[in-house]
Each structure stands twice: as structure tokens, then as C-alpha cells.
# Entry
Amino acid sequence: MVKCEKRDEILRAALVLIAEHGFHGAPMALIAERAGVGAGTIYRYFENKDVLIIELFREIEGKIKECILKGYSSESPIRERFLHLNKKLYRYFIDFPLHFRYVEQYHNSPYGVACRRDKILGEADNQDVFLKLFEDGLTQRVLKDLPLLILFSLAFGPMVFAVRDHIFGFFELNDTLIEQVAEACWDGIKR
Amino acid sequence: MVKCEKRDEILRAALVLIAEHGFHGAPMALIAERAGVGAGTIYRYFENKDVLIIELFREIEGKIKECILKGYSSESPIRERFLHLNKKLYRYFIDFPLHFRYVEQYHNSPYGVACRRDKILGEADNQDVFLKLFEDGLTQRVLKDLPLLILFSLAFGPMVFAVRDHIFGFFELNDTLIEQVAEACWDGIKR
Amino acid sequence: MVKCEKRDEILRAALVLIAEHGFHGAPMALIAERAGVGAGTIYRYFENKDVLIIELFREIEGKIKECILKGYSSESPIRERFLHLNKKLYRYFIDFPLHFRYVEQYHNSPYGVACRRDKILGEADNQDVFLKLFEDGLTQRVLKDLPLLILFSLAFGPMVFAVRDHIFGFFELNDTLIEQVAEACWDGIKR
Amino acid sequence: MVKCEKRDEILRAALVLIAEHGFHGAPMALIAERAGVGAGTIYRYFENKDVLIIELFREIEGKIKECILKGYSSESPIRERFLHLNKKLYRYFIDFPLHFRYVEQYHNSPYGVACRRDKILGEADNQDVFLKLFEDGLTQRVLKDLPLLILFSLAFGPMVFAVRDHIFGFFELNDTLIEQVAEACWDGIKR
DNA sequence: GATGAATGAGCGTTCATTCAT
DNA sequence: GATGAATGAACGCTCATTCAT
# Structure
């Protein structure tokens, strides 16, 4: 599947350049060069730069979901489910720092806003594992009686800062620490 | 003072455009037009675009600090100090959503990283109110025994998500809710 | 080779515009227009305007050297060698007046000074035909015992004025006259 | 005469900046600053930058003439007159290197061409001391039978190179050397 | 008369996108 | 299908000149 290899190379090159230098620090010509393809070739796989950026985000999002859902059971107790998702996410971002930085860049851009709006206002079948978890937690009266988005913020907001500081080398986020942060977040949302 | 009015117009125009469209969505020519000045005029007040961006950040940072320190006493109990800072910050960002969006953009850029690095690795006398608070909290054994940066993440990470969702209109962040979130964050960091 | 044609068109356009209007009288946009290419195309061949200017000089310098060395033998008597170089150079500049004006502009610019410094302070193996000639002339005690740079000035200084006045049409510099000027210069440097 | 002091300061500032950095390296604002006047003030004394440049050249030209004509007698023998002018000119340029560099820049610009054209095609009463000297030399059959402009080139062309190399520090042009070069130039033009 | 803040045309340069090969 | 040379609009920035004070 030669075609897909090229597409993957382009996505990989875009990931590295954008994660490290931001959207404007990643000209199409450089992405092409890094991917080992011609500049025009990118446009065979992606309509334009915006589409490339959005599709790359979707791919990363998909990988993240796949990873954190491994071993996840929506039948388990709320606490367990929460800790599972939280810790897996920490591990993922620490293992794939470029993904973290890309996703961060993405969310701080016009794309990100639209994306978030879609997700939140999206249809039920498209619903997030996270929101499902919090809904269950509310129903079971295990979590504080707060809006879903607030619970989400309390649960995953700290991660953005913590992972960023870890990636930039301000401190070391090891397994013990991840465990502790996850527990602390649980303290924040549990009733 | 006519001179300062012009400078302020430029800063205000930059704030609006950058907050709404990002750094690249705010060309100097547009900032000038919106500020009602000639393109070259900006350069009488700011050496270049980078300097404009950095000075705007510093001005906002100053206003934020001034606001949240109003009525703040570093002699009060940790809990009270924390809730004061946390709630004031929520209020500030809700009252000045453009400031919030600007600061967010800023922190997700080379400027922001350098700035964060300076702040974290800064000298003790230059220290942040926030870090001071957490240090005191650790000394008094009121807070969980976690690295300062983790405590910071737990305390203020949720705000980024919550305020963003509020500004984008996904839900209403009223005083009651702010109170509850602040308390929840306290639950996250208190021993 | 189509590629080189474009590069040559750019160099030719730059030559004409700079020779006639100076470095600032030759904006890149105008060079591009005259060369029949897009403005950005220039940058595929030359890193920036400075590089374009320098490379154009090197090309001209190369052509000059190639031309004047045709039929030149460093084994001939000093006088013959001198007259050969001198007259060939006159002919060249009369045949390519744009080259003359370009080289003049170049030498009266930061580029030119640096270039001259390099040439003068250059290593022996890199040495100029002219300096070699004067060194030989000194060794053989055929020339006045003066510094090399003075001999050079005496030998080629007059050419700058004479060719310039010819090009601007103030008088006609024909073969007889060239012969006479060359002889007069020889009178100036010979012992 | 306060007004003239300001005018002189402007001319002096322009001289230094243009001599050292060229016409484009000398923005009006910088000239004004260096002259200790407001930017707009320059336009009270000079219609625009071109006029300033031209008038500065005229002033320098006047000073040069005044200097070299000191002790000059058009009744003296040709050789003596020539050596007098030649050596005085060397001395002048060595004493006022900024004047030399300014005049050089000027001659390599659209201004210079027009200026030279005017002088050469100018009326008899406006005639140059130099041309007068060569005319006399021809009449007296002391000089080679060559066009005036050629004689001029032979006589003063070497100076441009020699002084330039001296100013840039490539060698030291002392009194003995000046004497020798002047004599060598005489050898070039004398019959 | 003197000022210097303000101007905006024009510069060198970049880069997403196209299209002939 | 793949290429990469070519494009030109748009960028950040400079500076000769103007004009209200």
C-alpha cells in the first residue's frame, strides 16, 4: 500500500514540525521535504494545509482513544474507570510528547474551537467516553453535583499543565507522581 | 496625554485581533487599521511585532496581578488565600475574556515557554504569589506533599478548561459555580 | 537547460537595472518583472538580494578574467604583459559597458570593500594576475620601486575615469587612443 | 548666525553618515538626530534629501578647490602647477577622509553622472583649473597630445585607488610616497 | 522658526498552492 | 500518480516627508 505510506510520511513530518515549531513554523515545502515527497504530492492526499492539520488531529485523537480504551470497562466502578483513563492519558502523553504538543497547539487555534464545539454539541452516539463516565458518576451520586464540563475540567485540566511542565523538563513526571495526581484529581471530583 | 492614547489604541487593537484570530491572524496592517493609525506608527511605540506581543502580555499580566492581589493577605490561612486567588482569577477572566484568550495564545507559543521557564527557574525574591502560597502550604503541612508544579497544576489547570468553555458559551460560569469549582480544587490539593 | 535560462534572465535584469540605477534603484520586484519571472522565483536561485548582487559580481569578474587572460603569457616581458592586460581590459569594458558600471557600483559598496580586503590580504596562491605582474616587474627591476598597490593605482586608476567618460559619451575611446593610454600608463610605472 | 549653525550641523551629520554608510545607510531621521535638530528642521534648509546631498557635494567641492588653489599660480610652469595640484589633493583627501569617501559615493550615483556631464559640457568661464592646466600643457607642447579627458584620467585616476586603499588601511600613504606617485603621474602625461 | 509624531508607499522576503512535465 | 519550479499575494518593516503644535 504505497500510497498510504506516503500519506503517513506526510502526517509524520507535519506532526514533528508543527509540534516543535507551531503551525507557521511548518511550511508545506518543509513538510514535503521531511516526508521525502514533492511539495505538490501533499495535495494529492490533503486538499490544503487546513485539511492536513485537521486530519492529523483526528488521527492522533483516534490513537489516543484506542490506547486509553485498552482494558477499559464501562461496567467498572466510577473511581476505577476514572483512574484508568486518567493514568493512561498521562502515560500516553509522556510516551508521545509530540502528540501532546500537537494537540495543545491545535486546541489553541480556530480549528480547536470548532472541534470542541462540535464535540460538545455533538450527537449522543458520538459522545465522549469521558462525558459518559461523568454522567454515570452523577447518576450514581458518586461525583459532585456539577456540570459535566466542570467535572471534565477538574479531572483533566491539571494534566495540561503537568504534562507540559514535564515535557519542557521542569520536573520529572514518574509513575508514582502520576498515581498521586490522578488520586488528587479524584479528590477534586468525588462527592 | 495624546501619546499614550495612541499606544493604548494599538494595544487594544492587537488584543482583540490576536485573541480572536491568533498571532498570524493579526497582521500589523490590520492592527494599525483597527487602532486608527498608520502602519508605521506602531513602530514608534513597539520595536517590532514580537515586542508588541510581549509588552501586551506584560500589561495584561500586570492587570491580573493587581486585580487578584486586591484584598489579598499572605498572612491569612492557606485555604482562604487559595480561594481568594482562585476566585478572583475566575472573575477576572470572565470579566475580560479577551485577556484570557490572549494569555492562552501567548502561553502556547515560544514566548510563553520562555516566560514560563523564567518564572519557574526565577530567583526566590522574584517568586510568584502562587508558588509562595504553595510553599507556605507545604511548610504548614496543609497541602498534599507534592511538587510545587503539580500543586499548581491541580489548583489552576481546571480553570483553563472551565473558563474556555464558558467564554465559548458552552455553559454559564456564575458565582455559585465558581465557588464550587474553587472548593473542588481545594479538595484536590489539601492534605 | 530551461532552468539556467531563468537564472540568466534574472542576472541580466539585475545587471541592467543596477548598472543604470544603482542598488537601491533596482527593487527585486522590478528585477523580477524585467526578467519575466514572478517575484518569488528570484529566491529559488539566490538566497537574497545580497547574494544575487555578489554572485552577479563573481560572474562578471569571471568573464573579465577569462577574457583578459586569453593569449596572456606570464613568461612574456613585463611591458608586453602589462600592455596586454591593460588593453584587453579597456576593450572589455567598452564592449560591456553595463559590466563596467556594475563593477564600479559594486566596488563602492560594503561588498566591494570586503572583496578588496580579501583580495589584497589574500594568500599567495590566490594571488591576482595583476599583483603577480607587478611583483615580477619589481623583481626584474623593470618597474619603479613602489608599493604594489601604488603600481596598481598608477596602472589601472586612469581606466576608471577614461572608460566612464567614454561610456557617458563625453568622448570616443577608440583603439588608437587605448593604445596611447596604455603606453602612457606604462610610462607612469616603468623605472 | 544661528540659522547657519543648524544648517552646518545637518551637513556635517550627513557627511559622516553618508561617508561611512552610504546614501541608504543615512536615513533623514538619523541625520537629524546626529545634527541635534528635529527631523522636520532639515526641510527648512533643504528641499529634500536629494538637494541636501547635492548641496553637501557642492560645499565639499568648494572647500577642495579653495584648498588646492592656495599658493597656486597659473603662471608657473606646467610641471610645477601639476605637481602642486596633485599633491595638495592627496593631502586634502588624507586629511579629510570623510570628504573623499563622500565624493566617491557621490560620483557613483545618478547625481554624479549629471554633475560630471554639467562640468564637462559646461561653459568656458566655468571651466576647471585642471582642464585649464592641461590645455596650457598641450599648447606649450609639454604634455602628450591626448584628449583633455584622457590627460585628466592619467593625472588623477590613480589617486582614487591610492587614497581609497590608504583610507581603508591597506597601506600608509606618507609624504615621500605622495611625492613619488605625483612624479609617476607626471611621467604618464608629460611628452 | 522648530519640532517630532504620524504617515503610507514601497521595500525584501515568505509560502500555500498550482500545473507543465 | 508524482514532481518541484514557478507564482504572487501578503507579510513585517523602513524611512522620506508632512503638518499640527
User: Anything to note?
Assistant: Chain B has a mean pLDDT of 91. The domain at 54-189 of chain B is CATH 1.10.357.10 (Tetracycline Repressor; domain 2).
